[in-house]
Amino acid sequence: MKKILAFAFFLLSVASFATAQTQPATPKGGEALPVKTPQVNAEPMVREATDKLVQKYTLNADQAKQMYIIQTRKQRNLQAIEVLKTSNPALYQGKLKNVQQGTLASIRRILRTKEQMKLYQKTQTEVRIRQAEKRKQMLLQNAAKSEIENAVIAVYAE
């Protein structure tokens, strides 16, 4: 009996999920909400960032393709959160940090050789040192917490 009830509950949840996916989100007036994402041609930035990282880590062809995908995703995510920069700076900060961490994790996953991993670790160690120095400097200047976080997040390297 419990299995039948569990199965029925499962079917109901799948059915409600499926209908929720097919129905567009609409406000009370019945009009669909427009999605405002700034469209910027990020291709040159993606190519440039990919080329720099291919050279830095001496990536092979397969790794270079994966790096291009990573950089494309990063630019797409940055464009998606750009509107939050002025409308909700705290949320923007958090999402920017997540984009950076996700990008670094993806890069780390494609690195294969010991030399690539050593260079990655060295780069991240240097970033952490620069972030700590920046935080200390800003604390000595009695900067606001949000300003400190913005400055620390800006210290980033792949």
Short description:
The protein has helices at 2-22, 43-57, 61-81, 84-87, 89-110, 114-140, 145-154. It has 158 residues and is mainly α.
Describe this structure in words.
The protein is mostly helical. Helix content is 76%, strand content 0%. The protein contains seven helices and no strands. The chain has helices spanning 2-22, 43-57, 61-81, 84-87, 89-110, 114-140, 145-154. The longest helix has 27 residues, at 114-140. Mean pLDDT is 83; it is low at 7-12 and 17-38.
Terminal residue distance: 55 Å
Number of helices: 7
- Overall pLDDT, averaged? 83
Write down the overall geometry.
flat
Helix content: over 70%
Please count the beta strands (DSSP E, at least 2 residues each).
0
Helix-strand sequence: HHHHHHH
Query: Main beta sheet: strand number and arrangement?
Result: none
Q: Approximately what portion of the residues adopt beta-strand conformation?
A: under 5%
Which parts are unreliable, with pLDDT below 50 for 5 consecutive residues or more? 7-12, 17-38
Overall SS class:
mainly alpha
Give Rg in angstroms: 22 Å
List the helices and strands and how they pair.
Layout: H1 2-22, H2 43-57, H3 61-81, H4 84-87, H5 89-110, H6 114-140, H7 145-154
Descriptive keywords:
76% helix, 7 helices, flat, mainly alpha, 158 residues
